[in-house]
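Dear colleagues,

As part of the handover before I leave the project, I'm documenting each prediction I ran so the next person doesn't have to rerun anything. This entry is a single chain, and its sequence is reproduced below.
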Amino acid sequence: IYYGNIERTRQGARFYAQNNNGRNYFKDYLYIHQVLGLTIQIGNTNVIVHLTPIKDLEIMIMDEKLNRNFYKALHLVLR
């Protein structure tokens, strides 16, 4: 993991909220990928295929907490 990218994303999400009436960047990011059919949902966990990956085969797994469905999604992606 390149932590500079994580920090840049965190700062970008804060900037997005400040300039979009408090909207949640990650919820909007998930929504647009769902509309385009680029997600798989496992319970409340979402696996997202990036529209603009930094590297080939890049995915994101999103959930509010680590739970059984998160680990199922991780297993699905890595197998």
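The CA atoms of residues 12 and 36 lie 22 Å apart. The mean pLDDT is 92.

All the best with the project,
I.
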